[in-house]
Amino acid sequence: MGNSWSEDRRLKSTISYTTFYSQFRQNVANVSFHQDSSSDMEQMVLTMVQENPKLLMLHENVPVARLGHHEVDATGQNVPATIEEHILQGLCMNPLSTSDSLNRVIQQLITRLQDDESLWIIGKYPRAAQLFSSQMYNVTTSIRMYQLHHQYLQVATIVGKVALHDTFYDTKCNRLQEVFNLYQMYLDMTQHNHNGTRSSVLFDQKLTQEMLDLLKTQQKLERTLALPTGVLIGTSLIKTLQNLMMLHAVNQHALRLAVDCAEQFSVPPRQFWWILLRTFSRTNQWENIMTLIQFGRPPIGYVPIVEMMLDNQKQEDVLKLVPFIHDEDERNQVIALLVKEEEETE
């Protein structure tokens, strides 16, 4: 019953989001907004690029290779027993053993055995595997070690960290896709296990997909608006919406694209309007705020808008806004703010 109620509430929320954005999109299409000159556009774009490190549109192969189960199993079966492994096992079980002693044995294993054989043994012991992975500068080797043991969550963690710091758009997308696939491999292996880890992995997988979708959307937006790479790509969802709303001052299509983006990623209407208010006030788009208010009460109400206007010495705009406020309590709050502002000015 609880799950059904939750799904029903989520469905109603989705419907309300769709209704809001459909109406907002229609309102934006039916009016003309104040636009600044093209020279302002160049300065605004330059500022945005400076605030966001560029992601270059270059191609680079992802250092992740999947292994078949048969190859992995054969590797484990053919690894000979060694004195070094027995020592490593004992050290891992001893809480008093040091990282230096573990590392010396690991290096001996690497010297004595072939790559996959040594990686197989190291990967059998979580403490040794963690130490080896943290000290390896070669990411591919750490990935290989975990792949040999089908430890796809550990592989996903490593690839995810690499993707987080990647400055190339293509490889960032490829790595995020690989992380998504690794999560799916884990879920397929544990489909009969109903535990908290699966729920966490499902959440992480969904989050990874949303990150990937956002990157692709940002690239599409940059191309649509003919922006240099780095204005939108790599920024957060909120920053993307802010930049699009800032660009609305010089590009009539930017706000509509911001609406599309917000709807795609299910941004709550209240949050969307807060971003809109703060961004438009920052870029001095007060005329455009007044235009949007004419279509009805914003989800955040009128009081926050009035407070922002008064903070920016826009008393005349507040007076123009009062006739649009039909709720008596809200109108009284606005009038009280005007009176207070006038008293403080005197």
UniProtKB/TrEMBL annotation:
Domain of life: Eukaryota
Family matches, as Gene3D superfamilies: Vps16, C-terminal region
Species classification: Eukaryota, Sar, Stramenopiles, Oomycota, Peronosporomycetes
Protein name per Swiss-Prot or TrEMBL: Vacuolar protein sorting-associated protein 16 homolog
Domain annotation Vps16 C-terminal: ranges: 120-335
Any GO BP annotation: vacuole fusion, non-autophagic
Ranges that cross the membrane: none
InterPro entries assigned: VPS16, Vps16_C, Vps16_C_sf
